[in-house]
Amino acid sequence: MAWVASIQDSEEKMNITKALATVVGTAIGFGAAGTAIGVFLGKVAPGFFRQLLPLRDPANFNPVELGIGLGLTNGLGWGLAVGILLVAIIAWKETRLARMEAQNRVNDSVNK
Length: 112
Known about the structure:
Structural class: mainly alpha
Largest sheet: none
Number of helices: 4
Order of helices and strands: HHHH
Radius of gyration: 23 Å
Strand content: under 5%
Helix content: over 70%
Number of strands: 0
């Protein structure tokens, strides 16, 4: 486990650029995955969207377009939520480690 500590020591702390990149990256990744799932469902199981949403004009219904729209919006929303949660957890961890290191330095100076 010494290699884990050396990796953690060599890494830079979370900053606003990394936080923003994390949130945007997860949103884009989840959005792309949601779009792909929506296209897949629209092509393979178009009846899924017909059952999911009652339509007023079934003649103009395109399940692939609906899958793209629903998949993209849901993917972006979940990606933003996961990205923000991830940044919050990392920031909390770094704050907690910094406080523990400061407390250890105080304890070491008192014990001398």
